Amino acid sequence: MKFDEIGDWSETKLDIVKRYAQVYSKILASQPKLTHYYIDGFAGPGQMRSRRSGDTVAGSPINALQVEPPFNRYFLIDIKGKHIKALRAAVGSRSDVELFKGDCNDILVNKVLPQVRYDEYKRAFCLLDPDGLHLNWQVMELAGKLRTIDLLLNFPIMDANMNALWTNTKGVDSEQAARMTAFWGDDSWKEVAYTPETDLFGEVHMRKQSNNAIVSAFKKRLHEVAGFKHVAEPIPMRNSRNAIVYYLFFASQVAVALKVASSIFKRRRTRIVA
């Protein structure tokens, strides 16, 4: 199959995922009572092509499958049949990998995440990397409530700004606003994204807030609503035009996990512009 091209920001993200997965698996494997899983909600075909070099680049599931010591089990999900077919070919006869074709919002909530039970000493590193507002808050909240998940999450701010977070709120399509609500979990994003201002003539207008204000509120939401004890300061991922495509979040229940992720983020953090 023809693999999608990815920019430098995606290669940086893949490096972050790979490095955290390596540390995570090493730590968890050293604790005999614990069983640890790798979960990828938007797994893709397993390979991409670097726009910069033209070389083939291993995707997040392939990198995770090469981690030593290995995870006890891998759950790879993608909505596209051709991606699952490519992953099946890459996985081969490995019995520790389970592939799911379909919407991860349904599969994660009903089939995968419920398997990672705290009282059964199971833990998981979960990557949720949608290319837009295709993820439901229900998934993120369940991951937090289970108390067993280390979450690396793509907050797709470019899709949100292009389709839902318009300066002129009256022009936003209702379906696009519904996508934002599904990702955020309710319509409180409207109160975060806009503040009322009165002009010299006494008329009230809604002023759109900065990216920083929006992602800060989402960070607070992961902590206070989803129940993650620790949420790292997100790292902005920029395209070749220096525009922020998305913010990469990390959330966990464990302080040492936050320390590891923050250290990895720090080495790759780019300048944040509101």
Lay out the secondary structure.
Blueprint: E1 5-6, H1 8-29, E2 35-40, E3 47-50, E4 56-58, H2 60-65, E5 73-78, H3 81-91, E6 97-101, H4 104-112, E7 122-128, H5 137-146, E8 149-155, H6 157-163, H7 174-184, H8 189-193, E9 194-198, E10 204-208, H9 211-224, E11 230-231, E12 235-238, E13 244-252, H10 255-268
Parallel strand pairs: 1-3, 2-5, 2-7, 5-6, 7-8
Antiparallel strand pairs: 3-4, 8-13, 9-10, 11-13, 12-13
Shape: globular
Which superfamily, in CATH terms, is the homologous superfamily? Vaccinia Virus protein VP39
Please give the count of helices: 10
Percent of residues in beta strands:
15-25%
How many structural domains?
1
What series of H and E elements makes up the topology?
EHEEEHEHEHEHEHHHEEHEEEH
Fraction of helical residues: 25-40%
What is the distance, rounded to the nearest whole angstrom, between the alpha carbons of the first and last residues? 39 Å
Structural class: alpha/beta
Write down the Rg.
19 Å
CATH class descriptor name: Alpha Beta
Describe the overall structure.
There is one protein chain. The protein has 274 residues and is α/β, with parallel strands linked by helices. It has one domain: Rossmann fold (3-Layer(aba) Sandwich), CATH 3.40.50. The chain is 40% helix and 24% strand. It has 10 helices and 13 strands. The C terminus is likely disordered.
